[in-house]
Amino acid sequence: MNRIVLLHRAGICIISMLIAIGSLADESNSHRPHTSHVHGIAALNLVLDGKAVHVELSSPAANMVGFEHAPVSDAEHSAQEDAFLRLKNADQLFRFNKTANCHAAEVEIESGDEEHADTRHSDITVMYRFTCDAPGELDTLRIGLFDAFPAIDNLAVQYVTDRGQGAATLRSGEPLLTF
To answer: Which secondary-structure segment (H or E) carries 42?
Structure first.
């Protein structure tokens, strides 16, 4: 199968799992991911599927590049390139417990604008795929996003693994997710 079909199937799998999580979650749950565009907040969805871990990161561009429009100056182009390089360094941003032996296999970055009333918002979405030699051992994930992107204050996380499903809000001083 070609790469586009596989990415599409992975995306459908992630969306299906998140719908299942959302239907089980209480509407007032403070761990529910923020779906609106809020500076300082990013969302992370994680699904374990066999030996593959699919991770989707979504954030306002301002959290990562410092602005929300297409880069126009040399400084803005440089800031975007730097952010994209950091985002591609998946094994530093997402460190699974060593016994699971997970390594980044694929990274795909999408950046786009949305128009809302009189304002323009730009979000960055990154799809990661990791391969784990011992997926049954997967029990923690240390998030390096807070160090790489200090403008991210909170990370709303939803996950589905063999151990179950859940949600959490991580912060700079609390970057460890336990499944």
So the answer is: strand 41-49
Q: Give the HSE-up count for residue 3: Cα atoms under 13 Å, Cβ half-sphere.
A: 6
Burial class (CB in 10 A: 0-12, 13-18, 19+), 114: exposed
Q: Which residues of the chain have pLDDT under 50?
A: 2, 4-8, 16-35, 115-118
Q: What is the pLDDT of residues 78-124, one digit of tens each?
A: 999 999 999 999 999 999 999 999 999 999 999 876 544 445 678 99
The residue with tokens 């200090």 is: 150
Q: How far apart (Å, rounded) are the C-alpha atoms in residues 13 and 178?
A: 22
pTM of whole model > 0.70? yes
C-alpha 38 chain-centroid distance: 15
Give me the numbers of helices (H) and strands (E) for the chain, helices first please: 5, 9
